[in-house]
Amino acid sequence: MSSLFPALTAGPAGRVALSFGERSLTYGELGAVTGALAARIAGRGRVAVWATPTLETAVAVVAALEAGIAAVPLNPKSGEKELGHILSDSAPSVVLAAPGDELALPLRELERVDVHVRAAGPRPQEQAAEGDPALVVYTSGTTGPPKGAVIPRRAVAHTLDALADAWQWTGEDVLVHGLPLFHVHGLVLGILGPLRRGGSVRHLGRFGTEGVARELNEGATMMFGVPTMYHRIAQALPEDPGLAQALGKARLLVSGSAALPVHDHERITAATGQRVVERYGMTETLMNTSVRADGEARAGTVGVPLPGVELRLVEEDGTPITSYDGETVGEIQVRGPNLFTEYLNRPDATAAAFTADGWFRTGDMAVREADGYVRIVGRKATDLIKSGGYKIGAGEIENALLEHPGVREAAVTGEPDPDLGERIVAWIVPADPQSPPGDEELADHVAARLAPHKRPRRVHHLDALPRNDMGKIMKRALTS
């Protein structure tokens, strides 16, 4: 199989590949350092990577892939119990870490290899096949400990090449982001993506609007972020014309990992003239759909299936929905070379995740337009509300609530109701805690924009919504 990163040996050696603040590596330097580390760990089986937002993490993962072995990225913020489970389940031979990093207790019995970013050495000959594991990424389900999704090299290559087609992504692009490096978004798309194209990535270390503006003003052409980041940008724009001007220079602004509220789309477009592109993926599938750079950036949608990806919606009984009208809600199922191969050591969970004919059950609910555009309405487990005989997606109600000037953040859940089956419950963070909007006012606001049966029946006011490391709202923590 050809290298995942041909630019390491055949690209412009003097071009900067990776920048983390003041620290950077050109392609020539990156090829030398990853070659040295790959030679050191070749044949060692799976390796754990202490995935801090640093140059060392990027070098460690690329070196593992160049050595033809699988990397297991570890979230440094994980608790000891979770880390212990991941280590016992994945059984890495070593842990790769930056010199001086203090590792969590469960890792201290594991052999450690420090990642030195100025080393050099002969590059081992890649022997890996496209079906061999590239990454084992742990993803939390609704019950039980995290499961390790085994992502093959084929899936990494296919997703990054499909996104290059959709986004017209080339080696001339310079990406800026501040995403964590233990998830698919920040690691696969945000680090491996530019390296596969022969382009550059500038990692902010920690997201901030000042850093975004600085890098876009200094030549960055693309930005990746999650909705929380774009929400902060939208809030900052009215008072920061320099930020608006910088964002206006970008070739592409991409949001992912959760739905970007329509209200934030509109505020960013109004201030910058730019439309944020959304895409849809999961740990198990990498990327499935995207708004294309040469297509319509339709706010509230995640675009169309990427090249090579098959996508369908199905009813609760598994019957495929054949007529797409933009209203009928179904579960997304996907099939293609972008899929993971298995949950490590979990044949039962792997079998349950797929249909008999190879479609992956995503658990995400969506509607699809006649022209193929997909709009996610939420997770089957937490965002599909069955109320009064209707199937209602929480996402559209959240978007409607966010259009109210008195609402800063919003989440919607369902709770049991003896009459309706489930009633709609809104959880809001008021724009002004001293003068929050009234419950009836919010219910009427939603009913006027959507339909009367979609209005919230209960409203809770919070100081903040519970979120995970990627900015996703943790709805299971919202209980009356």
Automatic annotation (TrEMBL):
Superkingdom per UniProt: Bacteria
Residue ranges of domain AMP-dependent synthetase/ligase in the record: 12-344
Domain AMP-binding enzyme C-terminal: 396-472
Alphabetized InterPro entries for the sequence: AMP-bd_C, AMP-bd_C_sf, AMP-binding_CS, AMP-dep_synth/lig_dom, ANL_N_sf
Alphabetical list of PROSITE patterns matching this protein: AMP_BINDING
Family assignment from sequence similarity: Belongs to the ATP-dependent AMP-binding enzyme family.
Name under which the protein is recorded: Acyl-CoA synthetase
Organism of this sequence: Streptomyces coerulescens
